[in-house]
Each structure stands twice: as C-alpha cells, then as structure tokens.
Amino acid sequence: MRIGEVAERAGVSVRSLRYYEQQGLIESTRTSGGQRRYGEDAVSWVGLIQQLYAAGLSSATIRELMPCLQSGVSTPESRVRLREEKARLDEYISGLERTRERLEEMIELAETPNPHCPVVLG
C-alpha cells in the first residue's frame, strides 16, 4: 500500500507516517523508484499508535512497547512501564482537576461584586 493510501485510510497526514517511520514505529519497504510501500496491517498499527499518543505516551515509550504489542505477549517490564505511564497520567489529571477547582474559585470571586477587584466576566 502506498503512503497516501495508508494516510487516507488511517486518517493521518503523510507527514505523520514519515515521522512514525523515522521514530521506528512503523516500517515500509521501498520500490525501485524509491516509493514507500506499507503492509496491509499498517492502517491498524497507525490507529494503535494514534491511541497511544492520545493516551500521552511518547514515541520512545511506544517504540519500547512495540515488541509486546506486535507479539501480543506482555512482559513484567512492559506491565511496569504501562503502570508508570498510568501513574503519570493520573498525576497529570489530578493537576488539571486542581487547576479547574482554582479557576472555579476565581470565577465565583469575579462574579461577586467587589469594588477592590474590577474583574468582570462577560
């Protein structure tokens, strides 16, 4: 499958595919004319990569987990790594929740008339 077809079917840009390949997340072969050719499973792999990126994993972490993802067999190390990533996301979410709470407090203050704080929400 050519790069444009994979990009279209996976809903990503050609540039993203080149980046994934550069990062060692997907592989292609080259035709005699130098065009990239991908296997039939490339679209599903790109979808998985997108999900992992959306979950906050870095290229390096995804690359580290690829052997387990490809074989369908996890290792103690991969399970530890995934738990670490989940803990990192949990902490990030907690931080966002604290920020949201502070913002809600600021909104309440701003909505309460106060001559010493002329902030007005409109």
UniProtKB/TrEMBL annotation:
<dbReference type="GO" id="GO:0003677">
    <property type="term" value="F:DNA binding"/>
</dbReference>
<dbReference type="Pfam" id="PF13411">
    <property type="entry name" value="MerR_1"/>
</dbReference>
<dbReference type="InterPro" id="IPR009061">
    <property type="entry name" value="DNA-bd_dom_put_sf"/>
</dbReference>
<keyword id="KW-0175">Coiled coil</keyword>
<dbReference type="InterPro" id="IPR000551">
    <property type="entry name" value="MerR-type_HTH_dom"/>
</dbReference>
<feature type="domain" description="HTH merR-type">
    <location>
        <begin position="1"/>
        <end position="68"/>
    </location>
</feature>
<dbReference type="GO" id="GO:0003700">
    <property type="term" value="F:DNA-binding transcription factor activity"/>
</dbReference>
<protein>
    <submittedName>
        <fullName>DNA-binding transcriptional MerR regulator</fullName>
    </submittedName>
</protein>
<dbReference type="InterPro" id="IPR047057">
    <property type="entry name" value="MerR_fam"/>
</dbReference>
<feature type="coiled-coil region">
    <location>
        <begin position="82"/>
        <end position="109"/>
    </location>
</feature>
<keyword id="KW-0238">DNA-binding</keyword>
